[in-house]
């Protein structure tokens, strides 16, 4: 599996991708530049809109348009003007925190978590937004990342990056409740370089995990905890991935250049750009926010 560079855009911190099957476009964000990107594969065209602050993930809405997480809240945002309207605020008094990656579950609830921007304390949390009601689901999170749901809608996957683990919860689609956290994947060193960041789930129930600092995406069987496949990338900071394309068989991959030295950037000039790999199997669709 050879990834292609689809957009040489060199984002500071590309993240939070989602596929809009209705319109055949990929949404993604550059968190540090505060940009929401819309990539149209047919035209190979990317446009972006300024959110005016950190924007950490973007999801399609069932009613049309998109919702995002800004530094301290869930918002809808107009993709033409960038004008955001709040849905729910969290952690308003925690100036050192910001939202990080997020995604919708199969029932259309919007899940997203926060992190300490200095990456020192576990002051982050995972939140769940249902319509306009937000609830804190987990606390003591360091860097909230990597959400996904199994094809049978009975398991939710979650990543707190510094733990080097992918967790699984029993997930109740009807209520959105999660319980019985366990570890399904562990990034042992030196076999698995870097830390787990964003992830995607394929139609066979296998999970694809981005390696921040590890130049790759790996595919895992969550039932055995064993790696099945690996996709190499020419950039170290691989942040997240999302299935897209008409047949949902193309994996879009976001990356970052933030924090890399001048020397490192000479070796990986495309750091921060958008990549794509044809996986030969289908992924699960992006779920839209039900509001
Ligand atoms: Zn991430």
Concise synopsis of the structure shown:
With 291 residues, this protein is mainly beta. Helices cover 2% and strands 53% of the residues. The radius of gyration is 17 Å and the shape is globular.
Q: What hetero molecules are in the model?
A: zinc ion
| Helix residue percentage | under 10%
Alpha-beta classification: mainly beta
Strand order of the largest sheet: 1-24-23-22
Strand content bin = over 45%
Unreliable sequence segments? none
Shape: globular
Mean pLDDT: 97
For the largest beta-sheet, the strand count, sense and barrel status come to:
4 strands, antiparallel
What is the first-to-last residue Cα distance? 37 Å
Got a strand count? 24
Query: How many helical elements?
Result: 1
Question: Mind explaining what this structure looks like?
Answer:
The chain has 291 residues and is mostly beta strands. The chain has 1 helix and 24 strands. A 4-stranded antiparallel β-sheet has the order 1-24-23-22, with no helix packed on it. A 4-stranded antiparallel β-sheet has the order 2-3-4-5, with no helix packed on it. A hairpin with a 5-residue loop joins strand 10 and strand 11. The N and C termini lie far apart (37 Å). The mean pLDDT is 97. Bound molecules: zinc ion.
């Amino acid at each position: 599996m050879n990834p292609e560079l689809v957009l040489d855009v060199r984002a500071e911190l590309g993240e939070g991708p989602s596929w809009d099957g209705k319109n055949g476009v990929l949404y993604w964000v550059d968190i540090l530049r505060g940009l929401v990107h819309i990539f149209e594969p047919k035209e190979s065209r990317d446009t972006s809109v300024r959110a005016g602050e950190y924007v950490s993930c973007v999801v399609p809405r069932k009613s049309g348009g998109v919702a995002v997480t800004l530094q301290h809240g869930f918002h809808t945002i107009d993709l033409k003007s960038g004008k955001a309207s709040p849905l729910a605020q969290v952690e308003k008094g925690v100036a050192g925190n910001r939202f990080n990656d997020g995604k919708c579950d199969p029932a259309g609830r919007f899940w997203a978590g926060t992190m300490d921007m200095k990456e020192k304390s576990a002051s982050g949390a995972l939140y769940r937004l249902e319509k306009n009601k937000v609830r804190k689901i987990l606390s003591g999170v360091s860097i909230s990342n990597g959400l996904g749901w199994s094809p049978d809608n009975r398991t939710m996957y979650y990543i707190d990056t510094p733990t080097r683990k992918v967790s699984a919860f029993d997930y109740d689609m009807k209520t959105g409740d999660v319980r019985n956290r366990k570890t399904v994947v562990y990034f042992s060193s030196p076999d698995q370089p870097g830390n787990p960041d964003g992830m995607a789930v394929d139609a066979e129930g296998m999970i694809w995990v981005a390696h921040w600092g590890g130049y790759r995406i790996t595919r895992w069987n969550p039932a055995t905890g064993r790696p099945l496949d690996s996709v190499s990338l020419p950039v170290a900071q691989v942040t997240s991935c999302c299935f897209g394309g008409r047949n949902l068989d193309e994996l879009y991959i976001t990356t970052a250049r933030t924090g890399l030295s001048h020397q490192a950037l000479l070796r990986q000039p495309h750091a921060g750009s958008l990549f794509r790999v044809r996986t030969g199997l289908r992924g699960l669709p992006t779920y839209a926010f039900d509001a």
